[in-house]
Every structure is written in C-alpha cells, then in structure tokens.
Design brief:
By secondary structure, this protein is α+β, with helices and mostly antiparallel strands. The chain is built from two helices and five strands. The protein has a five-stranded mixed β-sheet. It is globular, with a radius of gyration of 12 Å. Pfam families: ThiS.
C-alpha cells in the first residue's frame, strides 16, 4: 500500500493521522480507496470529478499536474502528499 501524507489542515478529516495507507494503481484509484476509509476528505481533495485546484497533489515529490493527473501511476511503495494551497499576504 502507498503512504498518503496529509498536511496538518487535512488531518482532522482522517482522525488526526499524519500518514495513512491507501491502495490503487493510479492516483484516481488510490483516492477512491482513501475516500472509503475517510469520506470527509473527498470534499477537501476532489469535490468534483477533477482534483480541487486548491490542493497540490504529489506522487513521490512530483506534482501530478505535470504528470497524468488522476491517471498518474502509483506504485505500492509510493508516497502521495496532499497539500492544500495556502494564501497569504494583505
């Protein structure tokens, strides 16, 4: 199973866990599996068919927007990082 690292702002949707496990051959399949265990994460990560534009998703430190999006392959040893975009300033 791949490891899914959750940013602090998402941990409350996964019982406070920093890292959870999920499985799937592609990012889309892995996220579907993740939502089965933590349904409230779906609204934060993928409220529509596509990923939220306000969440950065990385597979082994590579931004999936520059790979194959939800079709990005995910190996059993992969680390997927879910990192909501942060805004700041005045």
């Amino acid at each position: 199973m791949a490891k899914v690292r959750l940013a602090p702002v998402l941990r409350s949707f996964a019982g406070g866990s920093k890292i959870v496990n999920a499985q799937g051959d592609t990012l889309g399949a892995l996220l579907t599996n993740l939502y089965q265990s933590y349904p409230s994460l779906k609204e934060q990560i993928q409220p529509e068919q596509e990923l939220s534009r306000f969440v950065n998703v990385y597979v082994d430190d590579q931004d999936v927007r520059y790979l194959q999006g939800l079709e990005t392959p995910v190996s059993e040893s992969a680390t997927v990082t879910l990192l909501p975009a942060m805004a700041g300033g005045r």
